[in-house]
Amino acid sequence: MKNLLMVGAGSMSEALVRGWIDSGIAPTDITMTNRSDRERLYALKDELGVQIVEEENVNDYEIVVLAMQPDGVIPYVEANTWETPLLISVAAHIEPHQLEAASGLPAVCAMPNTPVAYRSGMTGLWFGPETDETDRAKATALFERVGRTAVTDAKSMSAFMAAAGCSPAFFYEIVGAMTPVLTEAGFDQDTARQIVAQAMKGSAELLSHESRETDELIADVAAPGGPTDRGVGVLRKRDLADVMASALRESAKEDHESIEKA
Ligand SMILES: NC(=O)c1ccc[n+]([C@@H]2O[C@H](COP(=O)([O-])OP(=O)(O)OC[C@H]3O[C@@H](n4cnc5c(N)ncnc54)[C@H](OP(=O)(O)O)[C@@H]3O)[C@@H](O)[C@H]2O)c1
């Protein structure tokens, strides 16, 4: 039995494969396939050292990850006969019970983000009702190789997608707003971006190791009346908290609407 088949060779598939190889999975244990763009498939084989196939038998693999666009997922599942693999879809707006109904196998819907390429991903895992502990552990272990995971479900998936998938754009917006202050002070654009990005990365690292409330963490760096305190005061006066919560709610709402349209 071969290890892992990636059906779809687009940006998410590549990001996951890069992360998995970096985590120690042998490139030869990963097989990739797509339907049209063979040039890309061969380029990925040359660059990453993975196996590629132009026609696949899904039952040759322990795990099959569906990484095509969402509208192709159910037709693909229905077009195959499923006997053995653990079926994982990373497509948005697909629900595990749909995969299980179409395949007759336990299935997992995973929602990764592209930082998986650097093993800093955040992946939501929505386990199908037919999955058992072994399936869940296998899917969890696979995605924890490339970051962290959280269990999601029908109710929480939209908020998860907004927080893990959309919020990087919010953070880029914040970095974009802060860098001019540094370039005005004399740093070049790249250094300015690295300074803010590194401060953000360090704060994220600290947050992921801390369980104290964010107000307490702020108090650690903001002496009353000092420069941090004055800056935080500006954020509070302009109600950044409301802006950020509203942005996240809006992204979660849009996602919900697109599920309804699908
Ligand atoms: N990009 C993200 O940040 C992100 C985040 C979370 C989830 N996702 C999900 O990941 C999936 C892929 O997204 P993407 O951004 O990687 O899209 P993409 O770049 O368009 O890649 C889609 C890939 O699927 C292939 N494909 C399409 N139909 C196929 C089929 N029937 N059999 C085999 N391969 C097929 C395409 O190649 P050919 O056309 O050559 O076949 C292409 O390689 C989507 O469902 C998306 O919802 C993406």
Summarize the structure.
With 262 residues, the chain is of the alpha/beta class. It has 2 domains: 2-154, NAD(P)-binding Rossmann-like Domain (Rossmann fold, 3-Layer(aba) Sandwich), CATH 3.40.50.720; 159-261, ProC C-terminal domain-like fold. The chain has helices at residues 11-22, 38-48, 73-79, 96-103, 133-144, 157-184, 189-209, 214-221, 227-237, 240-261, and strands at residues 2-7, 30-33, 51-52, 61-66, 86-89, 107-111, 121-127, 147-151.
Q: Helix amount, in percent?
A: 40-55%
CATH topology (level 3) name of the largest domain: Rossmann fold
Q: Which structural class matches the secondary elements?
A: alpha/beta
CATH homologous superfamily (4th level) name of the largest domain: NAD(P)-binding Rossmann-like Domain
Write down the CATH class of the largest domain.
Alpha Beta
Q: How large, in whole angstroms, is the Cα Rg?
A: 21 Å
Head-to-tail CA distance between termini: 35 Å
- Total domain units: 2
The total beta strand count reads 8
Q: Characterize the biggest β-sheet.
A: 8 strands, mixed
Bound molecules: NADP nicotinamide-adenine-dinucleotide phosphate
- What's the CATH architecture of the largest domain? 3-Layer(aba) Sandwich
